[in-house]
Amino acid sequence: MIMTIKNAIQIYLEWKQTHTSSAYTTYKVRLEQFENFISKKVKLNEINGDDIIAFHRKLEGNYSLNTIAYSARVLKNFFWFWHGRGKTTFNPKEIIPIRYISADKDIVTSEDLSDMTDLLEVNNLQELQKKLIIHLLWDTGMRLSELLDIKIEDINEQGIDGLRTAKVRTRKSMRYNLVIWGSDTNDLMNRYLGMRLCMDCDSKKLLVNPKTGKVFTPRSVQRWITELSEMAMLDKKITPHSFRHGKANYILDQGGSVRDVSALLRHVKPESSFQYMQLSKKRYEDVARRYLTTFSNNRLQTA
Fold first, then answer.
1. Alpha-carbon distance values, 255 to 121, 252, 259, 290 (Å)
2. How many CB atoms lie under 10 A from the CB of residue 31?
């Protein structure tokens, strides 16, 4: 049976939605955009590397380099899916996505966290939830999708040190990992669990909207984090992922290594951690100055 591009995209998206619903929408947009671009080709096995290059050149000028790089990753994943099933002879290795990270990217700092949490009360359930969420995002460096997927049963009992832990599923690798948080976050978790277990709710998820009994959506969390950062008068565009970037930078600023970042943020590919070296101008300057040289009396000296 000949696989058409339209059917290939539909089948792939249905598979993608089963294990990473948060990425489904953006994948759908990019793949349908690619389908429209190559409308003259109907069969999946007709597509080659030249089509991919032409598509991304078409995007230049209308989209950021970061968006184009993300599109390349989407197409690479798509063709790996069908290459492994023998439906296309096109080698996905020809697609080499470049990851762009702006040095001016807004990240959350420990001071930002304090400014936001100071606005929230622990005796109000909704505010307690918000306070717990941003503390968990900061302490653990979790992705928002991982956080919202946590079930009550995933929270472990308090250990010898009096702190709880949790296991989270990383959707990229489909494996469970342990996450650990500090005493302040633990106090918030204990207080929240006391309220959460009393909620009349069928959901087993840890974080649910007390008004609807349904799990929070990523969009709703993004909305109130934006509102909270504005109330705290932070001159930044803060997103849930900004906490993850902030945690990575905090680890490096405290003398941690890229290997530490990779382990604590549970990166599937270790090279992903090297991106964070670019995000701190001061850290970059400190490293660069360490290896500068000076010329004195015609002799080369280390600065």
1. 33, 5, 12, 15
2. 22
Token pair belonging to 58: 């078409």
Which residue reads 């250990």 in tokens?
A: 159
Q: In a structure prediction context, what are the per-residue pLDDT tens digits for the chain, which is 303 residues long?
A: 788 999 999 999 998 887 666 678 889 999 999 999 998 899 999 999 999 999 999 998 888 887 888 899 899 999 999 998 999 989 988 888 766 555 455 788 899 999 999 999 999 999 999 999 999 999 999 989 889 999 999 999 887 788 999 988 776 556 778 899 999 999 999 999 999 998 888 899 999 998 888 889 899 999 999 999 999 998 888 999 899 888 888 888 888 887 888 888 877 665 565 666 555 667 667 777 777 766 555 555 554
d(CA 262, CA 205): 27
Question: How far, in Å, CA of 33 to CA of 28, rounded?
Answer: 8
- Give CA separation, 1 vs 64, 79, 91, in Å: 38, 18, 21
Same domain, 52 and 132: no
Which of 138, 117, 141 minimizes the C-alpha distance to 129?
117
Distance CA 128, CA 217 (A): 17
Asked if 84 and 218 sit in the same domain, the reply is: no
Structural domain boundaries, residue 224: 110-284
The whole-angstrom separation of Cα 133 and Cα 120 is 12
The C-alpha angle 270, 271, 273, rounded to 5 degrees, equals 75
Distance CA 238, CA 207 (A): 21
SS3 percent helix, strand, coil of the chain, rounded to 5, is: 55, 10, 35
Same-domain status, 64 and 156: no
